[in-house]
Amino acid sequence: MLKKKIIHKLLKIVGEDNILTSEEDLTCYSYDAVNQKFCPEAVVFPGSAEEIAAVLKLANQEQFAVIPRGAGSGFTGGSLAILGGVVLVTSRLNRIIEINTENLTAVVEPGVVCGEFQKEAEKQGLYYPPDPASLAFSTLGGNVAECAGGPSALKYGVTRDYVTGLEVALPTGEIITTGVQTIKGVVGYDLTRLIIGSEGTLAVITKIYLRLLPKPLSSITLSAFFKDLEDSAHTVSSVIRNKIVPAKLEFMDRGSIECVNTYQNLGFPNETEALLLIELDGDPVAIENEAEKVKKICLEQGSFRVERATTTKEASNLWEVRRAISPSLLLLNLTKMNEDVVVPRSKIPQLIHRIEEIKKKFNLIIICFGHAGDGNIHVNAMYDEKTPGERDKTEKAIHEIFQEVITLGGTISGEHGIGITKAPFLTMELNDFEIGLMKKIKRVFDPNDILNPGKIFYG
Question: Whole-prediction pTM value?
């Protein structure tokens, strides 16, 4: 339990209107998108980098944990106060400081919502590609901490590809700037890349320097329907093999389609076992030609219908359907283990086949969807936590899926991070020496282990 003198010092740093200590208020910050709860001992809302640094300096002196938090939309428990301590919420640092149309750059604070930033950039004819499903509410600080991806990662890359520099507060209280505000820069170690994806364990992000792109001139969205799941997987490989790189190439299996359809009648054909959503963008003439090629490939690979969105609104609605899958799974009234594995694109058919075998072996509902274009499949194993043995059975199934992913040359997490839920599986992908090296880096940044302790490394 935090001592009263510590609460008093925190109050002096952030102001009495920016600290929560009541049980009711703390409960609101005891969970994220994971089905686990850990109540913090206080929640603070600093208004500047200097206040964040002061909180961290105090924590380092008094030895209490600080857990950085954006919107709390993470899927691996990265913002949970598993050892108590103080949750530090960055929502007050929500300014878009600059969008520079001459240099195609921007400077933002970590509390800026991703989708809102995209809209502001588009007003200037610019484009910020990273588009996680949570873009309507997830913050850029959280996106950087997890190295968020999204459907556009296939063509445009992930968050780290757009961050040129950071301002961060270290666990020991210093404020430093990493990286550059230019396109090139190779002075010293790349601390920016090290902090991106470190899940709030090395530093608290206080400012983000981004690069932007010109907004694509035009786009086309196609829907390809399949009666066979594996045909859709082979189609993904075939599109890429034909040297076509869509802006987005998303996969939905029958289970995910049915979940979305329960509250939004999609009107998809009943015989649909899998759906590919494909977006092409760029020069209008060029993408017209690409769209015809993609349609032909889909039909050759077994699609029984390929449709083209005729309006911007129709295309937008299709992508809203894709983003609605994860929340729609809650309608099953089951607990889900949400994994985001990645394999080389050419291995997607083998992964899908193996998941089908595992689903039958364990008699589980396993729903798959995701960014098939870059090999990133979201695997959702659903179970009834009230039924004895169901959780253990589901964990065994997930372990087998992870094993197959590693065998295929993949990774157990593409964009969700490790947090606490995937920490027990870390040794499947990294050896003891590699993990030990990472722990040494953590100690250099955070010698007293006060910043987001208990995350990534298990035990």
Answer: 0.95
